[in-house]
Design goal:
mainly beta; 16 strands; about 5% helix; globular
């Protein structure tokens, strides 16, 4: 469980919500693969000044109101590392609306360090139970630019794409309402957890644009150094078909403090100045 050097002082953290996650009491589960965290690792940066929203960075420390409410609005920043080298950063903004939530996640990768991907943005709308309603994806870099929108229509996920070969529109049957990766922590944190507890879910991979069945397992509490403080984090492991499990560490609200990502990346909660240092022009 690696940690990155802290720089400037910082801020952090967030909590739960609830859709279609099923507790699995016995340890066998589907072998799950590769881009459970794709929403996290493939999210590009638009000009942050154009977002038109407050840029407040949430504190690492949780107050009683946030714990009781289970959700906080605000912005969180993450440095992205491969080994000891910083290769990019991620920004997550969460907002509450009358009928649900909006999540905007962005990643900027250094050219050559993201497997071709440089900028990706995923803008997601979730209902009051954190179930996916619609999303927009913009990808720059890589083999080809990608632009896509998706919408849940009953038991079907309708997707329109630009930049992918083949049909520009897809209608994918759903066996259950899907979630996005970065809403899984809050969902799981709604439950009273015991080490070994497993949950199953259907996740939408923002790049693959298809639902996948996955599992998440609670491994117990673990000490973690974040933003110069030592915290007792909730240690989880996510798995998707065809790829090794990826670990993440979250707080009482399910907010990510540290997370393993595809492409051998590690996301570490940092202050904005520290997360963006060396990456922004």
């Amino acid at each position: 469980m690696s940690n990155r050097p802290s720089g400037e002082p910082s801020t952090d953290v967030q909590r739960a919500a609830r859709p279609s996650i099923r507790r699995r009491p016995w340890p066998w589960f589907d072998v799950l693969g590769g881009l459970c965290v794709a929403a996290f690792v493939t999210v590009v940066l638009v000009d942050l000044r154009a977002l038109g929203r407050p840029r407040e960075e949430v504190s690492l420390h949780l107050d009683a109101e946030a714990l009781a409410d289970g959700f906080r609005e605000g912005v969180q920043w993450y440095g992205l590392y491969r080994g000891n080298d910083k290769v990019g950063f991620s920004r997550m903004e969460r907002r509450r609306h009358d009928d649900g939530y909006s999540l905007v996640q962005q990643i900027r990768m250094r050219p050559g360090d993201g497997g071709g991907l440089e900028h990706v943005t995923v803008d997601t709308t979730l209902d009051a139970s954190f179930v996916l309603e619609r999303f927009e994806v913009e990808v720059e870099g890589g083999l080809m630019p990608l632009s896509a929108t998706g919408e849940r229509r009953g038991d079907t996920l309708h997707i329109d794409t630009k930049g992918l070969p083949g049909s520009p529109s897809l209608d994918i049957p759903l066996t259950e309402p899907p979630v996005f990766d970065f809403s899984l922590g809050p969902l799981v944190m709604q439950s009273d957890l015991t080490p070994g507890d497993r949950f199953s879910f259907t996740i939408v991979d923002p790049l693959g644009l298809t639902p996948k069945d996955g599992t998440i397992e609670y491994l117990g509490r673990a000490p973690l150094d974040v933003l110069g403080d030592s915290v007792s984090a909730f240690h989880l492991r996510q798995e998707l078909p065809g790829a090794p499990g990826l670990q993440l560490w979250v707080n009482e609200l399910g907010e990510v403090l540290q997370q393993e990502l595809p492409l051998s990346l590690l996301a570490v909660r940092e202050a904005e100045a520290q997360a963006t240092w060396g990456v922004t022009p």
